[in-house]
Amino acid sequence: MRRIGLWLLILSGVFLQVGTVWAQEPSPTATPAPGRPALVRGSITAIGDHTLTLNTERWGALEVQIREGTRFHVPGFVQAGLGEVRVGDRATVHGRWIEEGRSVEAHWVIVHGPVQVRRGTVERIDVAARRLEVKTRAGEVIPVEWTEHTRLHITGVISPTWSDLGTGYPVTVIGHFVEGTFLAGRVISHRPHRLFLGVLQGVEGTTLVIQTRSGEVVRLQTDAQTRVRIPGHPNATLADLRAGDTVAARAIGNPDGTWLARTVIARSPKAPRPASPGPRQGPPPTRRP
């Protein structure tokens, strides 16, 4: 009996200690202590110079402080920072609690959402505002915004700038939508190509004036890399072209909407066509006996 009483006394002490510990544990809605690890999720409602406000379901509005070492992950971006975060984004913040749990110091800010791709042509571009409009293949016009971390690639252009991108350029934009605007992490493009067939109206300095078969009059710029080919003239130049020549000009688009001729093939309407080879002459074939 003494042993049973002793065991009951020991067990009651253990339960008393456990109850005391449970009573000291914070409730699920209690504010975490400063310095403890933080993992919070919510929607971004405001963005400052070095802070953002995250509206969470559990803690309400939290101030997230951005430090120099804070890292960001934004869909579509190879490299990102606070400048790539937008109001309306849903994000997860990893860091630590500060200021009595009402503020979080961010180590990681992860913006949620799938990486999306849109293809089309440039309808309008405003370099100063960092915005352009893209008309997709389905006919939809979407506003596109870029940042200092958006990567631009234009085939054939070394170290391209946004001034090298022009209206009518085909583009592929990679990023995600934020409240109706496409935030692009990468923009891939190439200069448009076009073949002009028609009659040369004249040469004005270094510009060719061509009337196409459809009746459209176009002006094509030329430069030192423009090649001119005329049958019978191995080293032809612009000076050898004449009004009335039939021309086929391959050109690429410039950012300002003009066209630059790369190759011009011309033929005078009076120039004789090369004679087609006649039947082969030679001794008649012999038959074997």
Automatic annotation (TrEMBL):
<feature type="region of interest" description="Disordered">
    <location>
        <begin position="266"/>
        <end position="289"/>
    </location>
</feature>
<protein>
    <recommendedName>
        <fullName>DUF5666 domain-containing protein</fullName>
    </recommendedName>
</protein>
<dbReference type="Pfam" id="PF18914">
    <property type="entry name" value="DUF5666"/>
</dbReference>
<feature type="domain" description="DUF5666">
    <location>
        <begin position="198"/>
        <end position="262"/>
    </location>
</feature>
<keyword id="KW-0732">Signal</keyword>
<feature type="signal peptide">
    <location>
        <begin position="1"/>
        <end position="23"/>
    </location>
</feature>
<dbReference type="InterPro" id="IPR043724">
    <property type="entry name" value="DUF5666"/>
</dbReference>
<feature type="compositionally biased region" description="Pro residues">
    <location>
        <begin position="271"/>
        <end position="289"/>
    </location>
</feature>
